[in-house]
Amino acid sequence: MEVNWATPLYEFLRQCNASSLPKEVLDCGAGGDQPPLSLFHQCGYKTFGIEIAEAALAEAMKFSAETGIELNIFQGNMRWLPFVSLSFSFVYSYNAIFFNSKIDIANIMLEIERVLRRGGLCFVNFLSVDDPDRKIFCDSARQRFHLDGFSYHEDTEADIYFANFDILRKEKRFVEKLYHGDRIKQVTVEYIALKR
């Protein structure tokens, strides 16, 4: 099964596959109709995910029911991960963390670090200040109940979150794509990091 819209996660998965740590992964922001956790599941990973938005969680549950793939996604908030410390070898947040304020993002990154084992890998992408569609949410947006807009980062601003990591890969990515019938442009700064 391919999840073409989540292409940066293929490089993360490649690096996870090269690790000797147990194949256990957590997705922070795991909802939607094509959960990227399915990529990890098909490679033999024990998968877990949390999703705050009820509609996105329902889509992920429908995906699991239709495919017979149990991904262990449940409702939760990535600001308070309901797992004991050092629970996971791999943790990622793809196109999800920027739905939070910068204060919350700092806390989320501490939570990701807390649940990640030493030598474990994380992937996180942040919206860039160079994002051409930079805007606050419209009144009808599903995410409006979280905050009044996305959080945007300068090119090196998010480096501070990785003080206890070795940054293995950092990439600024410009993407133009068709998303639910709309053509969107997005600029992100993406990190793959190893916890020391």
Briefly characterize the structure:
This protein is an alpha/beta fold and 196 residues long. The protein is built from four helices and eight strands.
Structure description:
The protein has 196 residues and is of the alpha/beta class. It has a single domain (7-195), classed as Vaccinia Virus protein VP39 (Rossmann fold, 3-Layer(aba) Sandwich), CATH 3.40.50.150. The chain is 22% helix and 33% strand. The protein has four helices and eight strands, in the order αβαβαββαββββ. The chain has helices spanning 8-17, 37-41, 54-67, 102-115; strands spanning 24-28, 46-51, 73-75, 88-93, 116-128, 152-153, 165-179, 182-195. Strands 1, 2, 3, 4, 5, 6, 7 and 8 form an eight-stranded mixed sheet that branches. The N and C termini lie far apart (33 Å).
What gyration radius follows from the Cα positions, in whole Å? 16 Å
Overall shape: globular
User: In the residues, how many domains can be counted?
Assistant: 1
Strand runs, count: 8
The level of helicity is: 10-25%
Structural class: alpha/beta
**CATH level-4 homologous superfamily:** Vaccinia Virus protein VP39
CATH level-two architecture = 3-Layer(aba) Sandwich
SSE pattern, N- to C-terminal: HEHEHEEHEEEE
Please give the alpha-carbon distance between the first and last residues.
33 Å
**Can you tell me the CATH topology?**
Rossmann fold
How many DSSP helices? 4
What proportion strand? 25-35%
CATH class equals Alpha Beta
Taking the sheet with the most strands, its summary is:
8 strands, mixed
Q: Mean of residue pLDDT?
A: 90
